[in-house]
Amino acid sequence: MRSKGKEHEEFSDQQWINDLAFLCDITEHMSALNLQLQGKDQHIGILWQRVSAFRSKLQLLKTQLSEGSCPHLKTLEGRVNAGIHVDLSQYAEILSGLLQEFQRRFQQFDETEILIKIFCDPFNMDPQNAPVNLQLELVELSCDVRSKQHYNNHELTDFYRNYLPKDTYPEIYNHALRMVSLFGSTYLCEQFFSKMKYTKNKYRTVMTDAHLMQQLRLATSATKPDINHIVKNSQYQVSH
Q1: Could you tell me if residue 235 is inside a domain?
Q2: Which residues form the domain of 133?
Q3: Going by C-beta distance under 8 Å and a sequence separation of 6 or more, which residues neighbour residue 201?
Q4: 197-to-132, 189, 203, 204, 219 alpha-carbon distances in Å
Q5: CA 82 – CA 72 distance, rounded (Å)
Q6: 103 with 142, same domain?
Q7: 124 and 49 assigned to the same domain
Q8: Final residue in a domain of this structure, among 181, 204, 232
Q9: % of the chain beyond a pLDDT of 90
Q10: CA angle in degrees (0–180, nearest 5) for 72-55-67
Q11: Does residue 239 lie in a domain region?
Q12: Is 35 part of a structural domain of the chain?
């Protein structure tokens, strides 16, 4: 930039560079969380665990900054190790504000935390802390050795779908249905509109709404069509 005659005072301001280093580090941590919250098959239990873990990480970073260290903020730590004066306490205050913002934005997680815990780990849940309609079934489930083996050997949603006796534990099963039906993120909606953007373009102007809906349904579905079975009794045209 100097060779092109573009001088910027910020790059000679050590405090400004310290702030930039902190911003790079905290943005890297938040970007990692953002990636963890994306993707299919992310039920509310997984999202709650990852958000809770990130809040604990922020609390750890805040405590370390208050004590004068930043081992998990590599760019900022590099400035400190280079002998540059860095007031770490000011960044601890910024993390306090970030923690408060997470508290505000994810307050619904806190309000339903006990329900999410029952869904994620019903065998280790204290029935006294559960809603009344689930208490007796949780007691019975905690003594159900066979169901616990299935719980330990299968994915959570697979356990509720295929291995939890619905007739024996109807309240727990219905509770699991409610938890699974919660939309933890807008990932599927974003994926749907992204596919629509590339499916309906200027080169496919004759596509009807019905055809578009069919293509989008196939594009966002987890079910794989059996092409061999579909075309088995169909007449199709081969190349001449």
Answers
A1: no
A2: 120-181
A3: none
A4: 48, 12, 12, 11, 12
A5: 16
A6: no
A7: no
A8: 181
A9: 59
A10: 45
A11: no
A12: yes
Type of residue numbered 77: E
List the one residue out of 45, 24, 6, 40 whose CA is nearest residue 176.
45
Tokens for 114, please give them: 């006990």
Query: Residue 67 is encoded by which pair of tokens?
Result: 């004590």
Q: Which two three-digit tokens encode residue 47?
A: 């999202």
pLDDT of residue 232: 77
Last residue of a domain, one of 181, 207, 232: 181
Q: What would the DSSP string read from start to end of 21-76?
A: HHHHHHHHHHHHHHHHT-SSS--HHHHHHHHHHHHHHHHHHHHHHHTT--TT-HHH
Tokens 């727990």: give the residue. 172
User: pLDDT tens digits for 61-119?
Assistant: 999 999 999 999 999 999 999 999 999 999 999 999 999 999 898 888 778 889 999 99
Centre a 10 Å sphere on the Cβ of residue 76 and count the other Cβ atoms it contains.
24
Say yes or no: 143 and 81 in one domain.
no
